[in-house]
Write a structure and sequence with these properties.
Layout (H helix, E strand, L loop, with lengths): L1 H15 L5 E3 L4 E6 L4 E10 L5 E12 L5 E4 L12 E3 L3 E4 L4 E9 L8 E11 L20 E9 L8 E11 L2 E10 L8 E8 L5 E6 L10 E7 L6 E10 L5 E10 L3
Parallel strand pairs: 2-10
Antiparallel strand pairs: 1-3, 3-8, 4-5, 4-7, 4-9, 6-8, 9-10, 11-12, 12-15, 13-14, 13-16, 16-17
């Protein structure tokens, strides 16, 4: 009897709460090298992968994040390096038929004067509008799940006079899904967006022999933000090691830190 009730509940969830799915097709980060007084154009490609029509609203917000995983979406002008006033979207609401694709266009008008070189940014939020009205005559559990997208629009002005400035904020080892992960917190104290990679060179503590060179994935890092870069060190045997952490951006600017690495038995 319990099994039949469980199957009935699963059947109700499958067929009572199917919603349209919105997907952004052309990336979540759009970067421009800009000059004062000029206009730049971009687009956001959206698809409704569901079987029902779906309305989508678009709006601007400021954006920041920290290495502890917190992300902040705030009203425009919260960030003093916002470019939200420069961006105009050609529509704030679109409705897509089932399986339909569309493109929403935006323009970036760069002011005639900008106070200082570096990166300015905001995000265009793409959020489905929930149009499902509850029907109290039907049985079931009312489940609503909305996935929204944040498309970064980054404008780099006078990049030659700006720079990233990477700082190591913390290093720790944690176990995740059976793997041993080195987590390196990096902040960008500079004024230019960059996409660094973190390498670790591991040395035998007794004889100085280099044992391993491992890397994280590259990740974008906005000014005055921080992220945690992860390196899988599962194949490193438990012991104490000397190590060098090297954070390198795409312009080959390198920032290094010497550390003592202790890999413990699980």
């Amino acid at each position: 009897m319990i099994k039949r009730i469980f199957l009935l509940i699963m059947f109700m969830l499958q067929f009572c709460f199917i919603k349209a799915g919105i997907v952004v097709l052309n990336g979540l980060s759009h970067t421009y090298q800009v000059e004062t007084g000029k206009v730049y154009k971009g687009k956001i490609a959206i698809e409704n992968t569901g079987n029902q029509p779906q309305s989508v609203k678009l709006f601007l917000q400021d954006y920041s994040y920290k290495s502890d995983g917190t992300t902040s979406y705030t009203a425009p002008h919260t960030n003093d390096k916002t470019n939200s006033d420069w961006i105009k979207i050609n529509t704030n609401l679109v409705t897509l038929k089932a399986k339909q694709k569309t493109e929403v266009y935006y323009e970036i008008t760069i002011p005639d004067t900008i106070s200082e070189p570096g990166s300015y940014w905001s995000v265009i939020m793409v959020e489905p509008v929930d149009e499902i009205k509850p029907d109290h005559n039907k049985q079931g559990v009312n489940i609503t799940s909305i996935i929204r997208y944040a498309i970064q629009v980054i404008t780099n002005f006078d990049s030659e006079k700006a720079k990233s400035d990477l700082k190591f904020e913390g290093v720790k080892i944690e176990k995740e899904e059976g793997r041993r992960i080195l987590k390196v917190d990096i902040s960008n104290k500079g004024n230019l967006y960059c996409k660094p990679t973190v390498n670790i060179e591991i040395y035998n503590k007794k004889n100085g022999q280099k044992l391993e060179n491992l890397s994280s994935q590259a990740m974008g890092l906005l000014p005055q933000t921080s992220k945690s870069f992860h390196i899988d060190i599962s194949k490193i045997p438990p012991d104490r090691y000397n190590a060098v952490l090297i954070a390198t951006d795409e312009d080959e600017n390198a920032f290094a830190l010497n550390v003592e690495l202790e890999v413990k038995n699980d």
